[in-house]
Amino acid sequence: MDWKYSHYISQLQRTTKKVHENFVVSSLFHDPRLSDLLPLTQYYVRRDEKRYALIDLYYPQIHLAVEIDEPFHSLNTEADKTRQSEVEGQSGCTFRRIRVLENNVLEQIEKLKLEIIEEIDQSKRDGVWEEWSEPKSATIEDLQQELTNTLFVKIKGRIKEDQLLSRQTGAWRLADWKRKKVKQVVVVHDGVVTRAFTDIDWWKDPERGHKWAFKGTETEEFDSIGSLLLGWNYQATTVYSNDIG
Q1: How many CB atoms lie within 10 A of CB 75?
Q2: Torsion angle of alpha carbons 120, 122, 125, 130, nearest 10°?
Q3: Dihedral angle, C-alpha 157, 158, 161, 162, nearest 10 °
């Protein structure tokens, strides 16, 4: 299957439960003028040292965030401004918004497309444009062999912003003797290696059926971040590096 098509489908799946967001993102995905842009839906960014945000759509080549303000956003105007300011300060990206309640969504989308095209052209004129290339991939078997003292956890689907960290960090049914050997946790979300944590601290949460949850230090130096992870097609949501067994 064409790798771009596979990427579009995987990213679009995260918008299926939000009809306005799905409509806007689909329109952008289907425009051939934007086919050289890497689109990332539900993109994970920092707000500050402890909090995170999920951007509806992000184009890393032009550092552009697109937010689709569905009707409920009219009740959160000030909170949205604060969130945007924090994300801009951390990431340096710029924001564009599609506001559904303005009732001219098609016009807003076309205006957004023209602005995006100009951003692409400007990036090329400045000599900073980077082509969207086929993503690197790895197999779970290779990573299990390559890494040591590592737990891999698998999560799926759209995650609400306030639940992001809790979904990534717990909770898991783990054999006690294996858990004690874990020094690194690698998160695989919808078939992509998304996060890696070190300095792992475990605890049992009785509210989660006595499963194990963890805290850790997120590292961005893990080479496989962003890689497609192949071969993990079986049901288990946790596996260990081979040295743990």
Answers
A1: 9
A2: -40
A3: -60
Rounded to the nearest 10 degrees, the angle between the axes of helix 105-125 and helix 19-30 is 40
Centroid of chain to Cα 47: 14
Cα–chain-centroid distance for residue 153? 15
C-alpha to C-alpha distance for 70 and 58, rounded to whole angstroms: 17
220 phi, psi to nearest 5 deg: -100, 10
Average pLDDT (1-17) is 86
Question: Whole-number mean pLDDT of the chain?
Answer: 88
pLDDT surpassing 90 at residue 114: yes
What pLDDT is stored for residue 87 in this prediction? Answer: 87
Q: What is the pLDDT of residue 1?
A: 56
Element (H, E) at 211: strand 211-218
pTM score, whole prediction: 0.74
- Which string of DSSP letters, residue by residue, matches 10-75? HHHGGGTT-HHHHHHHHHHHH-GGGTTS--EEEEEEESSSS-EEEEEEEETTTTEEEEEE-GGGGG
